[in-house]
Structure formats: C-alpha cells, structure tokens
Amino acid sequence: MSQPVLEARAVSKHFPAGRSTVRAVEDATLALQPGRIVALVGESGSGKTTLARLLARFYPPTSGEIRLHGETVKGKPRAYYSDVQLIFQDPFGSLNPLHRVRYNLERAVKLHHAVRSRAELDQKVTELLERVSLTPTEQYLDKFPHELSGGQRQRVVIARALAVEPKVLLGDEPISMLDVSIRLEMLNLLDRLRTEDGLALLYITHDIASARYLCDDIVVMYAGRMVEGGLKEDVIANPLHPYTQLLIDSSPDPERRDRPNLFDAEDLGEPPSLIDPPAGCRFHPRCPFAMNKCRTETPPRTELPEGRWTHCWLQENA
Amino acid sequence: MSVLTVEGLTVDYVSGERPVRACDDVTFELRQGEILGVAGESGSGKSTLITALTRLQRPPAVTTAGRIEFRGTDLVSLNADELRKLRWTSLAIVLQSAMDALNPVMRVGAQFVDVLRSHDKTLGNKDAWAKAADLLGMVGISADRVRSYPHELSGGMRQRASIALALACGPELVVMDEPTTAVDVVMQRQILAQVLRLRRELGFAVVFVTHDLSLLLELADRIAIMYGGRIVEIGTAESLYTKPRHPYTRGLRDSFPPLRSPLRKLTGIPGSPPDLRNPPPGCPFHPRCADRFDGCDEQRPELLTIEDHADHTVACRLYPSGDDQL
Amino acid sequence: MLKSWKVRIGLSILTFFVLLAVLGPVIGGDPRANDISSISQPPSAHHLFGTTQFGQDVLAQTVAGARGSMLVGILAAAIGTLIAILVGVPAGYFGGAVDNGLNFFTNLFLVMPVLPLILIVAGYVQGTGPFVIALIIGLFGWSGGARTLRAQSLSLSSRDFVLAMRMIGEPHRRLIFFEVLPHLTGWISAMFLHGMIGGVMAEAGLAFLGITDSGSISWGTMIQAAQQQSAVLRGLWWWFVPPGLCIALIGTAATLVNFGVDEISNPKLRQARRSVVVRARKVVEA
To answer: What are the residue boundaries of the ABC transporter domain, all occurrences included (chain A) (predicted)?
Structure first.
C-alpha cells in the first residue's frame, strides 16, 4: 500500500449539549490513499458525517489528529483546502441561488490559478464543465442553480471542487438526494475521477449496495465507533461484526426474495443515545452474541489478513 | 375481489398560466389484502396520486377526470362529511414524516383515544386508553409509552406509532406514502416486517408509494411504475424484476446496484425526468429511451395486457396489441 | 413581493409622499408667506387647506413639511440601517468573540431608554436642525435591526453554499459581501422602510415636544405650532388634521408593507390566492 494522503488517527469529537456531552465520534482511524475509494457506511447518528466534517476541518477534533501527507494539520485551514474538498449531500443547498454556474467556477479558478486573460479563464471553466460531462458547456455556463436539475447541480458542485485540483475528495452522501435513475451516472463520474486524476475518495453513505458498486474498501460505523473494515467483497460476503451482518441483512436486496427473512426482522432494536452510550461495545445491547466482556470493555482493533480489521470480542478471542 | 378501482384518474394543477397535468389517465385496481407498490421518481406524479386517492388534495390540485371506486362508492363525488365517515374506519394514510401525522403537543395515547372515540361513540375513556396501549403493543411499542409525547419517541417509534394509529379503526385500505424514507435501513426492515405481519393478521390492503424500487421488489405483491404522470407498467413483483417490459422499468431496475451478484458497469438512465410544465409529446419517456423508434414522439402508448400474462400490463409501443416480443 | 395588495398599497402611499417631498418646492406655494387678509380661515378656493393663525397656507406648509419629515426619516433610516449592517452581519457571520462583543454592544443600545436619551442629547447639542435630529434618531434606533441581521447571518453563514465557497478559498470579505449579504437585501430594505417611517414619527414626536429647531418646517413643527396656539380648543381643525393625517397614513403604509414582508418570510401566513381557489372550483364544476 502506498503512503496515505489523508489520515484520521484515533480522532474523537464530543459536542457539548447543555450539561451533557454528545460523543459523536470516538477513536476513529481512517486512511485515504491516492486512486482508492473508501466507503464509510453507517446509519444516521453513526458519526459518519461528523467524521467527514472533521476531515474537512469544519471543527477541530476533541482528541486525536488529522494528517495530510503524513504531517499533522494545524493552523488556518486555507492551505489545507487546496488539497481536500468536500461534496455536500444537498446539491440544492451547496450552490448560492443568486450566482450563476459561471460565477462559481470562475471564482474557484481565480483563487487557485494565476489566470492572465479572459480567454484563459474561459478555457479553464469550459474544461471543468467538460470533466463533469456538462456539455455543451455554453448551455450551462449562464444558468442559475434553480434552472438545473439535481444531478446537474451536483456536477457543478463537483466541478467547482475540482477547480482547486484537490488530492482528496470527501463525498458526504453525494447521491442520496438525487433521483434514482441518475445516481449511477454520478457514481460513474466519481469513479472516473479516481481513475483519471488519482484522487483519493471518501464515499459516505447509508446504502451499502452503492458502496459496493463504487468503492475498494468499506468501513462500517455504528454509534460513533468504527466496527469493521476491509476490502469490500470480504466485508459484504463475510461480515465479521454482528452489526455489519445486521446492516447487510436489512438492506433491500431483490435477489433475496425470501419474505420469511422479513418476518423475523421485527425486534432488532435501535441505536443508542450518544449522550450516554453503552459501556463496552456500543452494539452489545442489540447483539445476539453479547458476552459479559462486551458489556464492560471496549473491544480493541483486531487486525486480520488482507487489511481486514474489526472491533469485536468474538474475533479478538477467536 | 377488488377493494379499490381507479379509472382514468387525471389531476391538474391549475395555478400557473396553463394547467399542469401531474396524473394522466391513471388506471389500476387493488385487490383485497394486496400490497400494491407504486414506484416513481420526482415528478412522476406518485405524490399527486396519493393525495388524489385519499381525497386530501387542495387547490391548485384538481381531479379533472376519472373515478376512484372504493367499496362501490366513487370517492371523487363524495362531500367532506361523507369522506370523514370513511377516513380511519375504511381508509387510512401513513405519511413520510410521522411528525406530520402526530400532534406534537398531545400525548401519543390521547391521539389514539381521539380517533377511537370519534368513530365509536360507545367506547368509554378507560377502554379507549387500554385499546391505545394494545395498538401500540401491536407495533412493538411498550404500553408505558402511551403517556409519552411524540418528541420523546425515536423517529422509528414515531413512524410505527403512526402506522398503529392508521390501523386503529380497522381500515380495509391503508395508503402509505414513503413511510420508511425518513428512517434507517434496519428500522425500515423492522417496520416492513410489522406491516407484513399485520396485513396477514388484519387483512387490509396497502398502496405503498416510494422511489425505492428495490424495496418494493421484496415487499409488494404487484408494482405499478409511474413516469411523467402515467403508469407505464404494472405487474407482479416477480415478473417485473425478472422480465421488465418497459425500457424505463428496465432502466430503473438496473439503477440499483446488486448487493451480492457480480458487479458490472451500470449506467442508470441518461437524461433527467420530464418537466411536467412542458411534457414531451407522445410517450413521456421517449427522450431518454434507448429503444425508441419512429412515432414514439407522436403516439401516446396505451396500457395493454401482455399476451399470456394477465397480470402484466405495459404502455410501450414495443409491445403493440400486447405482443410479448422479448 | 409586489403580488400582495397590502404591499402595493403601502408602497404607493410611501411613493406618493416621497414624490411630494421631492416636488414640494415646485407644486406648493411659499409656506412662510403670511397672507394677512386671511387669518385662521377654513378651507376655501383660495387656500385649499385653509390658513393658520399667522395667515400661512396650510397646504403649502403640509407639502413643505413632507420634505422636512421625509428628509429626517430617510437620513435616520440610512444611518440606522448602516450601523445595523456593520454590527449585525459580522456578529452573526464570525460568531465567537466577535459576536459576544458586538452582541453586548447591541443589547446595550436595545435596553437604553431611547426617548429620554434623545431629549438629553438634543438638549445638549446646540442647534437641532434636521441633520442632527436624523443623526440622533439613527444612532439610537439601529439595535433591533442589528439583532435581526445577526440572527439571519448566523444561519446563513453555516449554510452549505457558504461553507463550500469558503472551502474553495474565498476570503471572508467576499463571503460576507457576495454570499451572505445579497440574501439579506429583503430584510435590509424592509428595515430601511421601517426605519424611515420610525424616523418620521420620531421627528414628529420630538418637534411636538419642542426639541427641534422651530424655524424648520415639518409635520411635527406644524402640529406643535397648532398646539401652542390652542388650535384644538378654537376649532381650527384644518391646521392640525392634514399633518396628523399624513403621519397616520405613513404609519398605515408601514403596517401594510410589514404584513406583506411577514407573509413572504413566513409562508404559513400565506393564503392560497383567491384566484387559484376560484379557478380550481370552476374546473371541478365544469
């Protein structure tokens, strides 16, 4: 494996909530390599968006460190953003409704490249639109966001991020608000960027099937903690952590078509509150295999062959 | 036997300069105890269909043509009073966000009591509270939660409570509008499991509307695919999955990457859904259709039954007069 | 916004008075000319609004008063709105220590007893012409607006599009002026309108209390003069009714515009337009 571009090392994030504390992310470790896509999969409240925002430096971690090119990041994030960009979930919210497509792209180009002439600027902007397949480009340049469909907006957002020529792209559920029939085109675009530009990509999603389609590695989060990670086919075909198992079994899968599976799914419980999370493994109250140890001690990271790892006492003891 | 027969239902929005047709000549029937899935993307008319079906529509939406026959009465012609008698007892609705259905300043149990007692005047207060606890128990919410306020319940519990509320007066038909879109996959599975069990025990029929076709393929008995305000294909979940006839249905099915079978490059459907203010002539799907041929941009295909498949109808010129050419 | 009839009527009234103020010197007569042949006369063909105790034409005075009152109103609004923007927007945008400081400052002005302070300051400053009065009103009247703008900027500055532009390296100055501020124009123009009307009212009140320079002509000074000459007791209603009515009309206009702005910022207050409901009914009946 090559040297990671961006790393989170044992980062935690606690938010104050009145007198109590929300433990949104605890001890998360993640590495992004050039040309590789890591999918971060979890339900709402699993901490996946908080982790993305930590990596985007919207707020500092409570503990742990974020490393870019092997160096701990600190100080003002301006320089950081020429290497790391985040794509938001909502393409309607991430473009200012008052600015045309042209304005967004031109600003990004001007801020990161010494363009000398109008022609050079126009050329750069056109290239960006072509890279996200918004062609013919003249058709889109002078449009306002409200004149574009959700998919087109998300492409503009990606083009704007690409203007910076980043090394890392963080996608926070970038397709979940798009129409089903155009989601795959967006995933294919992200895949192309990884291949062509060697971008390191973090794909955050709740949809494990789309994660499998796009990514190389899968990391599963539950209630603010990472529970399992590894090559995607290994994790999906042979989930080691009981939560990963539950998540895969719960995902819609037309190939399954066995209704009995649905009937016994009634009492699966709910994720815990992050204000006062369960001691030990945070999944233990719902885990069919929970042992005494699981209730008291947090399972450590168990390293397995082929880059596979999990936080589960079942594997640690095995 | 059918619970609900919809024929030629057409809904226009009349606020702009010219009417916008959100539902166009929608025809289908719902059999007793059946789960009919309705799948569609934004602008397909599925939400408009829901409000028209349940007669919850408000101006500028107007039903301009068609009938909705529910147990022998045409819902379109009923007045507000007659509709009120039908609601809850025969026809109930579950919305996407339980917060829209539950009153935030009333205890959950009290809302059940309200509904129960307004439809059964002989029911005493104490009995009504006991029944409310039973109903919540039915969806796996413990009896002590009767006294909770909606905000004290988790999102999944609230959605389950609103399903229990919809079932409070034993309706024959429950219309569900994206009931699991706001909850996570694990909770989604729990809720669907409950709906399936309750359907088996109580025998109500369901119209289940969602954008998530992969979910319907597992859950529904039959599925209607909507596009551009029309139903383009109806069939059993099995036949729609294994042999979708309409190019849109095929594209939509292939827009969901598989969870287990080998991966191949998928492309989704190029282009974007039609703008209903300015609908394409002929078949609404023709601008995005890879199989279009001469005339698709002029002739509007009718929903026709496919030969030898009484349960499968499709509106596409690839299948003239019901020939099954694939 | 212009679709609402309330806003349209309110804005028409305001436009009328602004025009009156601008064109005043052209259409009205000399407000200071004393016609000794007609003193305290009721409205007549010669003096449409009648005359004052001093034989001055009330119409000419009302027209000239519009100029005085509107000048104070617009100046006061401009000063107040500017301070509100300079304090409120950075407070909301930057948050943290900047916000704490500016917010403390705003709250200080918010709880100050404005009228007594204005009286003291006006009494202290010699020669209270329209500019000084406008300055005083503006300086004491920005805090409410600053609070509103702070709240709006606070929510805007955490919107995705601002974060996204910050991520591509846009400096704070541009983020404030090109991303945040344009979204506040509705609030700012409503605030300006409000400030203007408040300024007119405040000027009238101060003039009535005798704070302003009695040499200048405004609606306030007119009413004050009428009051001093016991116009009410003597039944000289034409002296004080026109300026009073003008002030009341401006207040009405403000209320109407405000209703309209409320409906826009809070869609729950919006009614389905009548025409739509009628049309829907027609389609159903057809």
So the answer is: 6-248
Q: How far is C182 from chain A (nearest CA, A)?
A: 8
Q: State how far the Cα of B26 lies from the Cα of B12, in Å rounded to an integer.
A: 12
- Per the CB < 8 Å rule, is A252 touching B197? no
| Chain C closest-CA separation from residue A94 CA (Å) | 4
pLDDT tens digits for C120-139? Answer: 877 777 666 788 888 888 88
- Give the closest of A209, A210, A270 to B187, CB-based: A270
Please report, for residues C76, C129, C201, C214, C221, the alpha-carbon distance to residue C217 in angstroms, rounded to integers and kept in the order given: 17, 10, 15, 7, 6
Domain count, chain C: 1
Domain membership of residue C163 as a residue range: 5-23+33-285
User: For residue C266, what are the contacts with CB-CB under 8 A and spacing of at least 6?
Assistant: none
Q: Which residues of C touch A163 (CB under 8 A)?
A: 168
Residue B8 forms contact with A (CB below 8 Å): no
Q: What is the phi/psi pair of residue A37, to 5°?
A: -115, 125
Look over chain B and give the mean of its residue pLDDT values, rounded to a whole number.
Answer: 88
Alpha carbon of C9: minimum distance to chain B alpha carbons (Å): 24
Q: Helices C219-228 and C58-94: crossing angle, nearest 10°?
A: 130
**Number of separate domains in chain B:** 1
- Give me the domains of chain A, ranges plus CATH numbers: 6-83+171-317 (3.40.50.300), 88-165 (no CATH)
Closest-approach residue (CA) in chain C for A80 = C167
Q: Does the pLDDT value for residue C263 go beyond 80? A: no
Q: Whole-angstrom Cα distance, residue B107 to residue B111?
A: 7
Tell me how far apart the alpha carbons of residues A239 and C37 are, in angstroms, rounded to a whole number.
106
**Any domain includes B160:** no
pLDDT digits (tens, 9 = 90+) for A123-146: 999 999 999 988 888 899 999 998
In a domain, B35, yes or no: yes
The one-letter code for the residue type at B15 is S
Complex prediction ipTM: 0.87
Task: Mutate one of A58, A94, A100, A154 to test the C interface: name it (highest C CB count within 10 A).
Answer: A94
Structural domain contains residue C166: yes
Range of the domain at B60: 2-90+171-322
pLDDT digits (tens, 9 = 90+) for C76-89: 999 999 999 999 99
Please tell me whether residue B306 adopts helix, strand or coil conformation. Answer: strand
Considering the domain boundaries, does residue B286 fall inside one? Answer: yes
Q: Can you tell me the distance from the alpha carbon of A105 to that of A98, in angstroms, rounded to the nearest whole number?
A: 14
Which of C167, C170, C183 is the closest to A85 by Cβ? Answer: C167
- Report how far residue B324's alpha carbon sits from residue C7's, in angstroms, rounded to the nearest whole number: 62
Residue B10 lies in a domain: yes
Partners of B213 on chain A (C-beta within 8 Å) are 180
- Separation CA A240–CA A227 (nearest Å): 9
> What's B78's domain CATH number?
3.40.50.300
Q: Are B184 and A206 inside 8 Å of each other by CB? A: yes
Interchain pair A163, C168: CB under 8 A: yes
Does any domain span residue C122? Answer: yes
Beta bridge partners of B223: B37, B235
Q: What is the distance, to the nearest Å, from the Cα of residue A305 to the centroid of all Cα atoms in its chain?
A: 24
Mutation choice for A interface testing from C160, C172, C181 by most A CBs within 10 A: C160
Beta bridge pairs of residue B69:
B5, B74
In B, which residues are within 8 Å of A257 by CB distance?
Answer: 217-218, 238, 241
Distances (CA, A) of B104 to B150, B174, B224: 6, 23, 34
> B268 CB near a chain A CB, below 8 Å?
yes
Q: Which chains touch A (3 or more CB pairs under 8 A)?
A: B, C
Q: Is the confidence at residue B24, as pLDDT, over 70?
A: yes
- Tell me which residue has tokens 């919850």: B56
